[in-house]
Amino acid sequence: xxxxxxxxxxxxxxxxxxxxxxxxxxxxxxxxxxxxxxxxxxxxxxxxxxxxxxxxxxxxxxxxxxxxxxxxxxxxxxxxxxxxxxxxxxxxxxxxxxxxxxxxxxxxxxxxxxxxxxxxxxxxxxxxxxxxxxxxxxxxxxxxxxxxxxxxxxxxxxxxxxxxxxxxxxxxxxxxxxxxxxxxxxxxxxxxxxxxxxxxxxxxxxxxxxxxxxxxxxxxxxxxxxxxxxxxxxxxxxxxxxxxxxxxxxxxxxxxxxxxxxxxxxxxxxxxxxxxxxxxxxxxxxxxxxxxxxxxxxxxxxxxxxxxxxxxxxxxxxxxxxxxxxxxxxxxxxxxxxxxxxxxxxxxxxxxxxxxxxxxxxxxxxxxxxxxxxxxxxxxxxxxxxxxxxxxxxxxxxxxxxxxxxxxxxxxxxxxxxxxxxxxxxxxxxxxxxxxxxxxxxxxxxxxxxxxxxxxxxxxxxxxxxxxxxxxxxxxxxxxxxxxxxxxxxxxxxx
Amino acid sequence: xxxxxxxxxxxxxxxxxxxxxxxxxxxxxxxxxxxxxxxxxxxxxxxxxxxxxxxxxxxxxxxxxxxxxxxxxxxxxxxxxxxxxxxxxxxxxxxxxxxxxxxxxxxxxxxxxxxxxxxxxxxxxxxxxxxxxxxxxxxxxxxxxxxxxxxxxxxxxxxxxxxxxxxxxxxxxxxxxxxxxxxxxxxxxxxxxxxxxxxxxxxxxxxxxxxxxxxxxxxxxxxxxxxxxxxxxxxxxxxxxxxxxxxxxxxxxxxxxxxxxxxxxxxxxxxxxxxxxxxxxxxxxxxxxxxxxxxxxxxxxxxxxxxxxxxxxxxxxxxxxxxxxxxxxxxxxxxxxxxxxxxxxxxxxxxxxxxxxxxxxxxxxxxxxxxxxxxxxxxxxxxxxxxxxxxxxxxxxxxxxxxxxxxxxxxxxxxxxxxxxxxxxxxxxxxxxxxxxxxxxxxxxxxxxxxxxxxxxxxxxxxxxxxxxxxxxxxxxxxxxxxxxxxxxxxxxxx
Lengths: 495, 495
What we know:
By secondary structure, chain A is of the alpha/beta class. In chain A, β12 and β13 form a beta hairpin. Chain A folds into 3 domains: about 5-85, Orthogonal Bundle (Arc Repressor Mutant, subunit A), CATH 1.10.10; about 105-135 and about 380-490, Aspartate Aminotransferase, domain 1, CATH 3.90.1150; about 135-375, Type I PLP-dependent aspartate aminotransferase-like (Major domain) (Aspartate Aminotransferase, domain 2, 3-Layer(aba) Sandwich). The first copy, chain A, is globular and about 70 Å long. Helix content of chain A is about 40%, strand content about 15%. The longest helix of chain A is centred in the C-terminal third of the chain and has 28 residues, at about 375-400.
């Protein structure tokens, strides 16, 4: 077995480069010179630290970076081994956290998406975020300064755990437009809609409890459920969302505590549930006394006409928890969402919020309360929809023009996503992903949205992809789809 | 048994007052007229809703408010009963959530503190927050506008889960001043320091695992631990913090996974651990290979001279997780904290952060990165310390002048808190609390910081109180302590 010669690493303490970087570079150089072939075991961090005369944390940090970049594989208790770089290929093609099939988790992929979204050489359709160029930063700056001038240092102070009361009032006014009648005191402002879901799961379900989720579903929910001990059972969906005829059986079999769904412009499929199905679903959940968690975060983003009312507005009983926020239409980075739970659940959810992170950020809540009441917010939504319609059209046209036959896709009526099924006889979405990155294109492979190892996973889960159609100009969108189609040809051995 | 006559509630749909408020007022009036004596069972919400011709949620909301204000006691499955108001007394004296002894939980008390802090008729020494009048809102407005002008709409977008890289760099520079050498990539920005603690507990401990905590300790940690299944064992503290001679035995007996402590200006005692004890403690935790979670959120707030270096700067091994933030010196409401964990723990903590709430707010991170590097931040800290010293002196002088003999208190060298022990032969802190509120004064009763039902709770836990000495001007502080002393005399039957 090859041994590792620490003497080949020269440390220069007068160098501006941190010591851990110098160690890392020394090891990378040794790997690239072939002195450390795949499977070579690196010395234990304590040993190397002693040999090099550095603090152990310096070596630990160097190893962590090497692992993150795919040079080595580290396991506590087993040691660190040089990986086969040929397996991984070029850095740009196969990003570090997605080198092995087991690395394709929602969490890793999300980090990857956020990183790729910042790279100027990649045109990404992957992330679940609104387009940066369409965010109303001027409007928001005005709202922030209004609040800072008006409220003085109080805007920097801790707020109430339930949220800023005038923001409650502004949200209630908006909810009334959707047909939801609520009192301001019924709302809980959360640190983003995502946190609302975490609070619900943490507070209302215990390990061993069952939950029904859409299949496919929001990938973060799969992540939240993964470590929780909660049993998730997927409900198959069609182009109108959850199929109600499957529900009764699942309810009777698994006695779930909760049904989580996004009836309006679902993530990842973009499906919007028609009114009749909404009523049908509510009849069933009311009959079985099943609590529904309705995620309505895409509501503002209708394109051709407003979507049907939320379940919460139609529900005959007090069995819907409604959650939404402003991360997809206005302020992704402000981390402001809200929950409208049945009154009996509010105190325990508020307690959980306070325990986890005290409150949502006060300044953003105050600025949001200002902007929601303004004409400029409606004007922003009008502009946003107009831009989204143009970008959707560009993507639909380009898909029709460039993608191979037997490719299918949805025609989204709102939200951010277009859901594509590749020809099932051709390459899978993960194979396409690698080739697409080579051509500077990224997307979200569909299998990330299916619950792993569930009997309900469709045979062709690996042939779906999610494209966010709002992120780029019509021109870049068209060019991106053209390159995606070329990547498919390469992956299929036709390039 | 008295029955409830719904016809006495007159609903006026043309009234601007929401229906649930009208229902609530009708019931309060009936209680106050004596028509609904204590223990009367109110009709089920469905029944009353039908009788009044309103949606059930309207009645549920009315009952929830009545319960929150202490008029009724509601339990799912048992019904709602009128409470004995004589037990509770006046609203102002005995606030709603603290009506019964079992309501004195950290969560309820925190909500109470936040509400009282907003009441102009109450001078409160209770909340664990910095003084609003000392927060540098002008400086922060400049930093926000710098960032908004410089970065455009990107400031509204989602950020990286690890945090904004230039903020990492600014924090690392500050950490170096405290003797901690770290690389920017080793940091995880959290949604407040509180969230960092939640991430650590969620990620590194499982139900059944043991943790050692200070006694008394930060009350939020008791809340976090309460529902977790984690076994907490308190370590008694003296005026220099955790007593190291007790540690070995506790470690051997309980095999804890973690020791959580705040060595610098502890909450609630204000204790600061001397350098020799810090080293002694680290020798022990290193010897036993025990992971330490060091909460250093009060570090900036030294008064006479800087405190000894953090444990993280002194630790011979890689076994300290360091956490801090800016909630106590600059930006409570921005919810920005950070973790500096051993490198091996960073990926799993980042994944947990992303799962819970994606990232901390991007705009605040960018503004903080600007302000931390500026002279105006150091200038703010200098002004803050100067004001804190004056307020501390005012409180110390007033305690000496007004409080009864056999009252003892600490002389804090930093942080926010002064820890008082009342004469143990006199009224307890909870009794004093009720009388103090009558005179418009609030404080944090000491028993909230002790682990409930632990064998280690000192006999006199009920005679401690925590006073935040920085919240009010020297004049108001002195006047508040004078009134507190008068409340003590009343409680002791001498008023």
